[in-house]
Design brief:
Number of helices: 13
Helix content: 40-55%
Largest sheet: 4 strands, antiparallel
Radius of gyration: 26 Å
Structural class: alpha+beta
Order of helices and strands: HHHHEHEEEEHEHHEEEEHEHHEHHEEE
Distance between the termini: 71 Å
Strand order of the largest sheet: 2-3-7-8
Number of strands: 15
């Protein structure tokens, strides 16, 4: 074969072959063949890469495949405004219960020098007119509901959110099947919404010396409920209204969250907390920050009585976060965690504008 015949033999895609046939007889035929072959080889390399990726993912568990797919999307498609959700910075630091607290009416937790108190409340039932007790919000769905409501408030620039028109779409966006019935996802999300709307929060802040502050943080001012026509089915949440103080503070201190990452961890309350917390920490970090295992246990160890068992569980959760964001400037060792300042390209979210120059000395929590 001549050189040009060898090149022609390597071109296989129908559209590229048609382009070759259309160029035959022209004085630039050899140049066009060279150009088309280059495109064929690029396609072949891309196909081989996809095939290798597919083969690699066949050996992964379902959740790991999902995390790997999210990593690939985020690396190839930088965060755009349509991919950003928002949550209040306070909620990124103060996690809700991980599991159902049952009949407990209060949840209390320390976060280093700070504390969170969560008190369950009541809602008026439109079906019977009674003020019915609601449980404490918990689990990943409560966090996703808060993420959704905060996002809608920021997008609409309004403290009042029409829940019935947006919640189902958000559930689909997060990868949940929208199902009805007693065990359906609609009922589960509504239950967490009701619990959130009825509860009250207090945050205690201490400077480690002789000064302490207590902040009353009532997220919601009003929840409008209505009964479907005919009085059958579950009570629907029509609108939610944030407390004005909370809303004003949210607009000023909304923390961006990449919805694609939230979708990857939508089934785990602690992984969502870790995602929010890491985003908050890295967004403003100016110098290396060292956290001990005791610090981390206080932040994320509500379900683990011992630090030893917590360390094992936390390392696994952190490894899953790193599968999605392999460039995170965070390491774990025997003493705890080290966070380092990061360039914008390695952050989960856009950095704050006008950040001052970094210092180099590590600080303790």
């Amino acid at each position: 074969m001549s050189g040009i015949e060898e090149k022609l033999a390597r071109i296989r895609d129908p559209d590229l072959l048609a382009e070759i046939e259309g160029a035959r007889g022209g004085f630039l035929f050899a140049t066009i063949v060279e150009h088309v072959l280059h495109r064929q080889l690029a396609r072949d390399a891309e196909a081989a890469s996809r095939q290798a990726l597919t083969g690699r993912r066949l050996d992964m568990a379902r959740d790991q495949r999902r995390r790997d797919a999210v990593r690939e999307v985020i690396e190839n498609e930088p965060t755009a405004p349509e991919n950003l959700q928002h949550i209040h910075s306070v909620l990124a630091l103060c996690g809700l219960p991980y599991r159902d607290p049952g009949s407990a009416r209060e949840f209390f937790r320390d976060y280093g020098r700070n504390s969170l108190s969560l008190l369950a409340g009541r809602l008026k039932n439109p079906a019977n007119g009674e003020m019915e007790p609601q449980g404490l919000p918990y689990g990943p769905k409560a966090r996703l509901v808060l993420l959704h409501l905060c996002t809608e408030a920021v997008r609409q620039r309004s403290p009042t959110i029409a829940v019935a028109d947006s919640l189902s779409g958000f559930m689909k966006e997060m990868g949940f099947a929208v199902t009805g019935g007693e065990r359906g996802t609609i009922r589960q999300f509504k239950e967490q919404l009701n619990r959130l709307a009825a509860c009250t929060m207090q945050i205690g802040l201490w400077d480690g010396g002789d000064t302490a502050r207590t902040l009353n943080v009532p997220p919601f001012r009003q929840l409008a409920l209505w009964l479907p026509q005919g009085g059958e089915g579950h009570v629907w949440s029509k609108t939610v209204q944030f407390h004005q103080d909370f809303y004003d503070n949210l607009i000023q201190h909304a923390l961006p969250v990449d919805i694609r990452a939230a979708r990857a961890f939508s089934g785990s309350a602690r992984k969502l907390d870790l995602l929010f917390w890491v985003g908050y920490r890295l967004r403003a970090l100016q110098r290396p920050l060292r956290l001990t295992w005791t610090n981390l246990h206080g932040q994320f160890g509500a379900d683990n009585a011992s630090i030893r068992s917590f360390r094992q569980a936390f390392k696994a959760d952190f490894a899953h976060l790193c599968e999605v964001f392999p460039k995170l400037p965070i390491t774990l060792d025997d003493t705890g965690m080290l966070l380092k300042p990061a360039d914008a390209s390695t952050l989960l979210i856009p950095p704050r504008s006008g950040r001052p120059a970094r210092a180099s000395r590590a600080t303790a929590a």
